[in-house]
Each structure stands twice: as C-alpha cells, then as structure tokens.
Amino acid sequence: MASTSDIKNGLCIKYNNDIYKIIEFLHVKPGKGPAFVRTKLRSLTNGKVLDNTFSAGHKIEEVRVENHKFQYLYPEGDEFHFMNTETFEQISLNKNILDSPGLLKEGENVMVSINTETDLPLSVDMPASVILEVTYAEPGIKGNTATNATKSATVETGATVNVPLFINEGDKIKIDTASGSYMERVKE
C-alpha cells in the first residue's frame, strides 16, 4: 500500500476495480482545510481519462509493474505487433493502449509496462519525440508568413500534423509524441 505522498507521473494504481496510470497530479495545500492531491488518471483497460481528488494520507493500492524495451514491428488492423529486444518474444497490443499510434514508425523502440502479477501489458511509453519525413504538404505561398500560420502535412506513418508554411515534402520534422505537435525541422 502506498499513500498520496508517493503519487508521481507514471504510477500505476488499482482504483474502482480497474488499473489506472497517473498522467498528471498536483499537491494542493489550501490555507483553510486539509491538503489534497488532484490527479488525472487514464484507465489502462479502455483508455478513458478520469479526474479524481485524493485527500492527504489516503491509502492507494499500487500495481507492481516492470518496464521492458520493445521494438515496434508492424500494424495489423487494430493490433500493433512488438518484439522484446532481449528475449525476441513477440506480443500484439490493441491500439487503445497506445498514446499516439499514428506516430509509431516501424523499428521504433518503446517501453512497455507489464503487470508482474498477471504478466499482461498495461501501457506503452513512446519516446518524447520522433523524427518523421513529410510525405505530403501543400506548397507554402510566398508572402503568407507574417503570422504564425500553419498548414496540415502528412508524415510517413500516415498521421496528419500542423506545421509552419515553410515545411515541404521530403523534409524531416521532429514531433512531440505527447501532444502530436510539430517541434522543429531536422537537417541531416
């Protein structure tokens, strides 16, 4: 058993007969009244996000997880296939478990959290950013760059990302996997 002082991002807990991963938390100590922890929890079974408040000192049941490095192989319908880089064992996961499946490129390494009690995969942690090539982008019209104007571009995985007007087909761009937003152009 853990208490609210042990809460941190990425912690997996049992709550309401389900397993949740803490994606955001904030310790609040108001001037009047007891302290509490405001959290944002994502269900690892159906992907729904839930806001919850725990009072200070509340006991929470922690789920023991192990993180293993897996390599993304290929998609098949709603299933995504991964291979353990140490044991070469292959698993397939539903796309609901993935945070941003549209940004996964074949050969990409990810961390998979596995419940040690049941040996079932709980969540997939992608790298903070990925570098992908733009396969389609409307040409930028000269003179339209006075403001922070953006256009949509399609990257090699098929995902659509809003990018600045100066990005063209064939450019490699860095994308934040948490928000799915453009970060910078990468020159090689």
From TrEMBL:
Biological process, per Gene Ontology: peptide biosynthetic process
Domain spans labelled Elongation factor P C-terminal: 130-185
Keyword Transcription listed: no
Domain of life: Bacteria
A GO CC annotation given for this chain: cytosol
UniProt entry keywords in alphabetical sequence: Cytoplasm, Elongation factor, Protein biosynthesis
A single MF term (Gene Ontology): translation elongation factor activity
Gene3D superfamilies attached to this UniProt entry: 2.30.30.30, Nucleic acid-binding proteins
Positions of the Translation elongation factor P/YeiP central domain: 67-122
Pathway per the UniProt entry: Protein biosynthesis; polypeptide chain elongation
Methyltransferase among keywords: no
Compartments it resides in: Cytoplasm
Record-stated family: Belongs to the elongation factor P family.
NCBIfam families (UniProt xref): efp (TIGR00038), PRK00529.1 (NF001810)
HAMAP family, per the entry: EF_P
Reported function: Involved in peptide bond synthesis. Stimulates efficient translation and peptide-bond synthesis on native or reconstituted 70S ribosomes in vitro. Probably functions indirectly by altering the affinity of the ribosome for aminoacyl-tRNA, thus increasing their reactivity as acceptors for peptidyl transferase.
Protein name: Elongation factor P
Gene this protein is translated from: efp
